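Long-time lurker, first post. I've been practising inverse folding by hand and with some scripts of my own, and I keep getting stuck on stretches where the structure tokens seem ambiguous. Below is the full token string for one chain I'm working on. Before anyone asks, I'm not after the true native sequence, just a reasonable design that respects the backbone. If someone could post their per-position residues I'd love to compare against what I wrote down in my notebook.
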């Protein structure tokens, strides 16, 4: 659910629940304290109707000259004063027929009070009296209405206040971000309406910090890796220029060529790593023969490392799998070359399918990797043993990690049965 939808739903529920709860509570209060008043008003209205009916019947039997005196006598014995008005003084509307039938009708006055009317038969006069409800009810209703809206306002305030506070934290963090203050993370409670937004900001901040750190490490590593062969090239040029024999010149030129190749390898690795780090990069899924891929790759690397024994163990029940063959080959090649570099004499490669997962293991009989180094082994430009003669650039395992991510899988480090390190490249089994 998106942030905007969550905010709308939460605010909507707060308003609806508040209206229902407060309205129900106010109704209970009214019923508890003023139900008797309403009942009394109803009984009073019924009594007044009967009283007005008797007064109108009395006045119908009175001559026009005696109506006023008779009315004065009636008012001396009635609970509510009775008056006489001309029928054309009021607008009866749809009640005209009822008045013509000599029925008592109720109409609202201009001051919202209620009055009762009864036609005096044989005349154009109406007998009338006012219904006076308990004087406290109107004021009490206004008080309860004010209380109702006041409680709603408090509920909305209590919901809006934390939201405003959290949005202020986001604003401060955004301003710090603008001024390159990368440590301005946002800590909100899980109940905050903008928790998802804060988490997204914190994730963005961590990603930027990671990229900046990698950029610094890359700059340092590149300068270090290039400085060494450049120094050797410079030294070889000086040696060649001072050499008197052609054989020595050829030897120095061969050394220069090797150093240039080393720089070229570094550039190639950087380009591969940069290509995989692009957000637009995706795996090219296709059917592939994993047995043929691993067998040919191991044969090629074995020829280049005759002093090491590379063995293969493949699950013969699983041959054709779904993957990006080019990327998987690149990842396994990096793992095997890394194992060759750090092994004593043995490297073992295996493939199996387990728990709906493809698993390629590459293990060696080297010294293994300490817990301290294991926490950073998959970061770019990290080298565990920089003194090794077959030194790399610290990008191989970072490339493997990215390839695993493109396959929605992972690369993990385990303890090898050979005594050294064991890297496991795994990704889900997809239907062919």
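-- Answer (accepted) --
I ran through it position by position. Result:
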């Amino acid at each position: 659910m998106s942030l905007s939808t969550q905010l709308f739903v939460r605010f909507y529920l707060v308003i609806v629940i508040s209206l229902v709860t407060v309205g129900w509570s106010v109704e209970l209060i009214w019923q508890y304290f003023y139900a008797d008043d309403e009942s009394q008003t109803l009984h009073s209205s019924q009594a007044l109707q009967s009283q007005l009916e008797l007064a109108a019947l009395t006045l119908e039997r009175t001559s026009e000259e005696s109506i006023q005196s008779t009315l004065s006598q009636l008012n001396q014995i009635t609970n509510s004063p009775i008056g006489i008005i001309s029928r054309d003084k009021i607008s009866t509307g749809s009640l005209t027929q009822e008045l013509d039938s000599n029925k008592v009708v109720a109409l609202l006055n201009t001051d919202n009070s209620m009055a009762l009317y009864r036609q005096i038969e044989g005349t154009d006069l109406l007998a009338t009296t006012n219904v006076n409800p308990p004087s406290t009810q109107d004021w009490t209703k206004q008080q309860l209405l004010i209380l109702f809206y006041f409680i709603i306002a408090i509920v909305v305030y209590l919901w809006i206040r934390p939201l405003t506070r959290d949005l202020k934290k986001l604003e401060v963090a955004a301003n710090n971000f603008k001024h390159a203050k990368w440590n301005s993370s946002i800590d909100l409670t899980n109940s905050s309406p903008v928790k998802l937004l804060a988490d997204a900001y914190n994730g963005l901040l961590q990603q930027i910090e990671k990229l900046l750190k990698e950029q610094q490490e890359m700059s340092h590593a590149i300068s270090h890796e290039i400085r060494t062969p450049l120094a050797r090239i410079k030294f070889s040029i000086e040696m060649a220029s001072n050499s008197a024999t052609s054989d020595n010149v050829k030897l120095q030129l061969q050394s220069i060529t090797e150093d240039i190749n080393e720089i070229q390898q570094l550039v190639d690795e950087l380009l591969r790593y940069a290509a995989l780090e692009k957000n637009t990069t995706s795996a090219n899924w296709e059917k592939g023969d994993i047995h043929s891929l691993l067998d040919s790759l191991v044969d090629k690397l074995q020829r280049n490392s005759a002093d090491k024994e590379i063995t293969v163990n493949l699950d013969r029940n699983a041959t054709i799998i779904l993957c990006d063959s080019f990327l998987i080959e690149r990842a396994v090649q990096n793992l095997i070359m890394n194992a060759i570099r750090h092994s004593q004499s043995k490297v073992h490669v295996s493939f199996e399918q387990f728990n709906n997962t493809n698993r390629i293991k590459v293990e060696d009989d080297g010294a293994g990797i300490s817990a301290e180094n294991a926490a950073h082994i998959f970061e770019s430009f990290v080298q565990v043993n920089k003194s090794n003669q077959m030194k790399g650039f610290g990008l191989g395992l970072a490339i493997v990690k990215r390839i695993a991510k493109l396959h929605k899988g992972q690369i993990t480090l385990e303890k090898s049965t050979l005594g050294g390190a064991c890297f496991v490249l795994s990704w889900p089994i997809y239907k062919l």
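A couple of notes from the structure itself: The CA atoms of residues 140 and 243 lie 113 Å apart. The chain is about 55% helix and 15% strand. Happy to go over any region you disagree with.
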